[in-house]
Design brief:
The structure is a single chain. The chain is α/β, with parallel strands linked by helices. It is 33% helix and 29% strand. The strands form 3 sheets. Strands 6-7-8-3-9-10 form a 6-stranded mixed sheet, with helices on both faces. A 4-stranded antiparallel sheet has the order 2-1-4-5. It has a two-stranded antiparallel ribbon with strand order 11-12. Helix 4 runs antiparallel to helix 5. 41% of the residues are buried. InterPro entries: AAA+_ATPase (IPR003593), ABC_transporter-like_ATP-bd (IPR003439), P-loop_NTPase (IPR027417). Keywords: ATP-binding, Nucleotide-binding, Translocase, Transport. Pfam families: ABC_tran.
Length: 253
């Protein structure tokens, strides 16, 4: 069981604050949606909490160990991180890219052990990529490539999934499919912290919402408690009707 904790975590770029004294924790059994407008600090919060971006204050830990001090392979065994930008250095087959998710266990494409190969097959099947397994990644659509990267994260079979806009390039069908897979991952004992801009998807699937505005966390709690018309106005400057988990955005304020 993996737990990610941030305590008074701050990030600066020069004199500019990117994250200000953020506190949160995410563990097994939780689907936490990180919500906020562009520029709120969501990506910097994810990266700093994982020790991938230098914090200017506070502390982040993974299973009570300082995130910034973990070796990359040890971090990758505990947390599967899917960044917003996912460049590929060179074209490769879908299967080989997904197999990179097993690198933390000493595996590499072309020389997978039985356990690693099984993990790759499960990830391909869950994301519906079996028929594309031997396609070159430079022949894929943007949505197909997004699913490849998500499958790579799944193949690691880490205890926690941290994903930055994992459904951004997907059509509605595959958005739901990815969200269903995350739910299944959590039901099997994992936890997830996911940046989402589609508030309807977030409201439908999340067990908790963390709301950010202007570098700060302004709310953290169950969907039913934090998803309100007032919160939508405060964070996104929009008028909205909220009934339970249903949202209807009426326009800008």
């Amino acid at each position: 069981m993996t737990e990610l904790i941030a305590e008074k975590l701050s990030v600066h770029a020069g004199q500019t604050a990117l994250v200000t004294e953020a506190d949160f924790r995410v563990g097994a059994g939780e689907f936490v949606a990180l919500i906020g407008p562009n520029g709120a600090g969501k990506t910097s919060l994810l990266r700093a909490s994982l020790g991938l971006e230098k914090a200017s204050g506070g502390l982040a830990s993974i299973d009570d160990e300082n995130s910034a001090e973990l070796a990359p392979m040890e971090r990758a065994r505990r947390v599967a991180y899917l960044p917003q930008q996912r460049p590929l250095a060179w074209p490769n087959t879908v299967r080989d890219v997904v197999a990179l998710g097993r690198y933390a266990y000493g595996a590499a494409p072309g020389r997978l052990g039985a356990q690693d190969a099984d993990a790759v097959e499960r990830a391909l099947t869950k994301t519906g990529l079996e028929k594309l397994a031997y396609r070159q990644t430079d022949t894929l659509s943007g949505g197909e490539l997004a699913r490849v990267h998500f499958a790579r994260a799944l193949a690691s079979e880490a205890g926690l999934l941290v994903a930055d806009e994992p459904v951004a390039a997907l059509d509605p069908r595959h958005q739901f499919r990815i969200m269903d897979i995350i739910q299944q991952y959590i039901a099997a004992g994992g936890g997830a912290l996911v940046v989402l801009h589609d508030l309807s998807l977030a409201a439908r699937y999340a067990s908790r919402m963390i709301w950010m505005k202007d570098t700060r966390i302004v709310a953290d709690g169950p969907v039913e408690d934090t998803l309100t018309a007032n919160r939508m106005a405060e964070v996104f400057s929009v008028r909205a009707k909220v009934e339970g988990r249903a949202i209807e955005i009426e326009g800008a304020i």
